[in-house]
Structure formats: C-alpha cells, structure tokens
UniProtKB/TrEMBL annotation:
InterPro entries: Endo/exonu/phosph_ase_sf. It comes from the Bacteria. This is Endonuclease/exonuclease/phosphatase family protein.
Length: 368
C-alpha cells in the first residue's frame, strides 16, 4: 500500500486572498492578535481599544459600508440590486445583463496544474489525501483529464468534503487498486472551552478497507495559523488517536498541514505525547538534498539533514504501521524556493506561478 498526503492548494482556481502579495511579519502578528481578541467572550475596555487600533493598522477602515451592487438569486433567476432599494431581474433570456461583480477566485496557471499532476504521478499512491481542494467537480476533472496524460491510472473513488473555511477550501481523498472508503466523520461542530468552533478548517476521519480485508484509519487535518488554537486542535487530534488505540484500532495514519515545526510547543500534544512516528524518521526516507553548500548543513525544522525547509506538513503512523514501512519520501520538485536553499525543480517550472504548491508531497509504502 502506498499512501501520500499533499496540500494541493486548489486545482484550477485559487481564492484571490491566497494569491495576493505575502503579508509582512507585522501584519501576520496583528491578524493573529486580532483573531485572539475577537474570540474572547468578555472584552475589557483595553481589548476594545486594541481591536480598534488593529483594525486601523490592517486597513479595515478602507472597506466601504455600502456595496455598489449585490448579485443574488431570487425565484430561480439572478437579480441585480443597486444602491436604490429595488430588485430588477437582469440575467435571463429576456433581458440583457447590466452590472458587474468582483470575482473571488483567480485562475491557476496551466503549468502549475500540470506540476500538481507531475508530483502525484511520480508517486502514484493507492491512497491520496488532499488539503485545500476547491470542489469535487474540479477534482474529478483533474483525475480524469490530467492524470491519464501522465500515463497513470485514474482513481476509482474521488471524494471532497466541505470544511469550516469561508474560502471554500475542502479536504478530500482519492482511492484505487482495491482500496475503498468505508466510513467518514468530520469535526466541524466540535467546540473549544469557550464555545467556539475548535477547527477553523477541519479534522476528518476516513475508514479505509484494504484489498486483503484489513481496515486502516486516516485523520486528515488542517490546523489553524493561530498558536493557541493550533495547540487546542493538536490536543483534540491526540485524543481522537488515543481513543482509536483503546478501541483496538491500531492501524492509524495522521496527516495533513499542521502549520508548525516539529519542535513547536503547540504540536507537543500530538508529536510528543503520543506514540505516532513521522515517516521522515524512517531510515529509508528519501528526498533530494538542497543544492550547493545548503545541502551540507542541518537546521531545526528540516525533514532531513540537507533538506532545510520549514516543516508544516506531516505523515505520521501508529507504531504497528510504522513497523511495516518499506520506504517513504518527500517530493518538493513542484515547490518554488522563495530564497536559499535551492533544490531541484521540474524543468517546466521557471517561475513561482508555475509551482504546484507551497507544500511538498509526503508518501510512504507499507507492506501488509
């Protein structure tokens, strides 16, 4: 069995907020602080003042209160509502279209789409776990139209499940070669101690049957960018994993974008308070080293000596599964290096817009 996890960062269209210029470190810190303050149930006068200051620093005061127009659906037809308080049907076979609307998504470069396919085709896993998928229709098209061009068999089962993210970032799983999805559970409605949603994206549980009749369980995750929330999510996933072990379910995989390095305190409940083992620790873990002198040193957060990128993505196995690992690895040939270190890329990638994703693909082959 070969399994892979990949934050594919959408297939054909990406939310405009996610492809805009990167925020400064200050802006990122302000957003995290504002998010924490807004989540507090009881706010002091100082909290309210700080919220106003942060809103100003982030430019929220530039947002207009009145929209020029609203595009909405009514009685099966599209309507255009302007500043005057009346609805006029505009989009139909009887009327001409009047007005405009700002699109929330931007198309992804064709080379980037093929880069995603290259990364998947090179690994060709039986089970492919994905984060950041726009919708099932896009994934089905990608599976049936792009993967066959690279001479790999398309997946027989293609599923995408919605999450709590308001940018329509779904999570999904693809299976073939006798592997089937037998059960699914999400954690969209789990609450933290303050009564707010625990997962701003989700933790999804998949029960998968193997060709020989065994069952494995995959926990597909996307953790928060906020440190405090990320630690709560790690604690919850740790509890889910431990409960499975107590129930005799010892073939468990925990994967996804955890948004932090392995030595982070936020991930301690999952990485240091469970017996899960990262596949990057396997003696046969393979990946290209950094180019030049960058490949000769080790830094914290690296997947391996000579692979010095900040770790955000994980593929972790329960001890019983880890004992069955034949080999494992990471593909980052579709990931554009912002600065040093550099690494080998697909020849078609000559700029950042051609990159498959900001995340590498992690995989493992397991002998049952």
């Amino acid at each position: 069995m070969k399994i892979a996890t990949f934050n594919i960062q959408n297939l054909f269209h990406r939310h405009r907020d996610l492809v805009s210029k990167s925020r400064t470190k200050n802006a990122t810190d302000w957003i995290s602080e504002l998010d924490c303050l807004l989540r507090k149930p009881n706010k002091s006068a100082n909290d309210s003042e700080r919220i106003n200051n942060l809103s100003f620093l982030l430019g929220f005061e530039k947002t207009g209160d009145n929209s020029y127009a609203i595009l909405k659906r009514r009685a099966g037809e599209l309507c255009f509502k302007g500043r005057i308080l009346e609805n006029t049907t505009k989009a139909s076979f009887l009327t001409d279209w009047q007005g405009w609307t700002k699109l929330g998504n931007r198309p992804i470069h064709e080379k980037a789409i093929f880069s995603k396919a290259y990364m998947i085709a090179e690994t060709n896993p039986d089970i492919l776990v994905l984060q950041e998928v726009e919708d099932r229709a896009s994934l089905i098209e990608f599976n049936s139209e792009f993967l066959p061009l690279l001479k790999i068999t398309p997946y027989q089962e293609v599923m995408v499940f919605e999450t709590n993210d308001n940018r329509d970032l779904g999570m999904g799983i693809l299976l073939k070669n006798g592997y089937h999805l037998n059960g699914f559970k999400n954690h969209l409605h789990d609450l933290d101690e303050e009564g707010y949603s625990l997962f701003d994206i989700d933790c999804q549980e998949y029960e998968i049957s193997t060709p020989n009749g065994d069952s494995i369980w995959v926990l597909n995750n996307y953790f928060s960018a906020d440190e405090g929330q990320r630690q709560k999510q790690a604690q919850k996933v740790s509890e889910i994993y431990k409960q499975k072990l107590r129930n005799g379910k010892d073939l468990v995989i925990v994967s996804g974008t955890l948004n932090d390095v392995s030595y982070s305190h936020c991930l301690a409940p999952l990485l240091r308070e469970t017996d899960l083992i990262d596949v990057s620790k396997h003696k046969r873990f393979a990946t290209d080293r950094d180019n030049g002198s960058s490949g000769n040193y080790f830094s914290l957060g690296a997947y391996r000596t000579g692979v010095n990128i900040k770790q955000k993505d994980y593929l972790m196995l329960s001890p019983k599964l880890f004992e069955m690992v034949a080999n494992s690895g990471m593909n980052r040939m579709g990931t554009w290096p912002e600065s040093k270190p550099k690494w080998r890329l697909y020849s078609s990638i000559t700029s950042k817009e051609h990159a498959a994703s900001e995340h590498p693909l992690l995989w493992s082959s397991i002998n049952f």
